[in-house]
Amino acid sequence: MSGTSPKLKVFTFLAVLVAAFNLRSAIVSVGAVLDDLVHDFGASGSTAGIITAIPGIAFGIFGVAAVPLAKKIGLSGALTSGMIVGLIGLSIRPWVGNIWAFIFLTGFVVMGIAVANILLPAWIKLHGGKSTVALMTVYTTVLGVGSTLGPLSTLLFSGSNAWRWAIFIWALPAVLQVAIWLPMWWDKKYDFPAETVKSGSTGKIWTSPTAFFIMLFFGLQSMNAYIQMGWLPKIFIDAGVSPAHASIGLSIVGIMGIVGGFTMPVAIARTRDKNLVWFPVVFGASMFLGYVGTWLWPSQGWYLWSFLLGLGGLCFPMAIALIPARTKDPRITASLSGFVQPVGYILAALGPLAVGAIYQAIGSWSEILVGLALGTVVLSIVGFRAARNVTVDDELRRSK
């Protein structure tokens, strides 16, 4: 955005803000009304499990198609197309009469979000200029805000159709999003042209060691995040913590995500490489202590363990911020994002399912928490390597 007018800069910031806000609110709001939704549709518990698993799996499946789509119609075109598809799902799904129609339209919602997950970092890289770090800060911070506010829409409505209105209301920011992005598409329809890509920088993205470790880092932290979102309140409640305190504990984790979104892009841009690599080690150690504390003294220090798990969750905004920070060419940024996030979200979907299956088999959280704690050691090692100041572009050139 260097050299552009202040008005255009404000419009670009607004475009990133509304896009980031819509990436999570429409998903987490469903979890808050899941019991009422299942009851009204007369659905089974296993069908409810499908609804909870859709986001992670769909992010992986549809995310793969995002980069090829952007190469055909441009980054702005692909992003706007996804937003329109998502708006269709958000507008219709609350009013359908059976669970399978709801699931089908939820696929529309997550399809649009999946495209934005992959392409928004590349769009910021291409159009951000000197404001790239600031835009990434807006992106990762507002992502956390959307996650935190999403479930609160249930407080606005009452009555027999309250759950329908509670998820329909998120179509309103989606309308605003489409209204802002449509002019961006028309103005930047061909904003991903081949001639802007530096020759010699392309290659098989998975041949880059840095890309591979960022993918693992993103995947492992996503798995931990989804496990915590799905199971942490129950772990606390089973240990004697009140349901209200268990919910507050999960909110503490979410608030730390907002803090991380605000700080990590700036930290990556300003911290020397030899110091930056220790960030994931510190975050991993914090998550380790959070799991161990939840295992040994859950009811005595639930607020402290939640804080430590939330601090460890700063791995998420760090992994997101590494995608544009460790690439030079916007097309490589898009390819890296398209490689990192689909795999990461598939791991995120499988993690909670595995924890549920293990708990059903053994009936205890102790072994699960010990396993999760040990897994943070791997997370720290992988994050240490992912954070090195090496660009994927350079590694791809050397591998050709």
Name of the CATH class of the largest domain: Mainly Alpha
Shape assignment: globular
How many independent structural domains? 2
The quaternary structure here is single chain
Helix % is over 70%
Number of helices: 19
What is the name of the CATH topology of the largest domain? Answer: Growth Hormone, Chain: A
What order do the SSEs take from the amino end to the carboxyl end, as H and E? HHHHHHHHHHHHHHHHHHH
Mean pLDDT: 85
Radius of gyration: 21 Å
SSE map:
Blueprint: H1 6-21, H2 25-32, H3 34-41, H4 45-63, H5 66-73, H6 75-92, H7 99-128, H8 132-149, H9 162-168, H10 171-187, H11 209-238, H12 243-270, H13 273-276, H14 279-296, H15 302-312, H16 315-325, H17 330-362, H18 366-386, H19 392-399
Helix pairs in contact: 1-7, 1-8, 1-10, 2-8, 4-7, 4-17, 5-6, 6-7, 6-10, 7-8, 7-16, 7-17, 8-12, 11-12, 11-16, 11-17, 11-18, 12-15, 12-16, 14-15, 14-18
Give an overview in words:
With 400 residues, this protein is mainly alpha-helical. The protein has two domains: 191 residues, MFS general substrate transporter like domains (Growth Hormone, Chain: A), CATH 1.20.1250; 195 residues, Up-down Bundle (Growth Hormone, Chain: A). Helices cover 78% and strands 0% of the residues. Helix 8 packs antiparallel against helix 12. About 2% of the residues have low confidence. It is a multi-pass membrane protein. It is found in: Cell membrane.
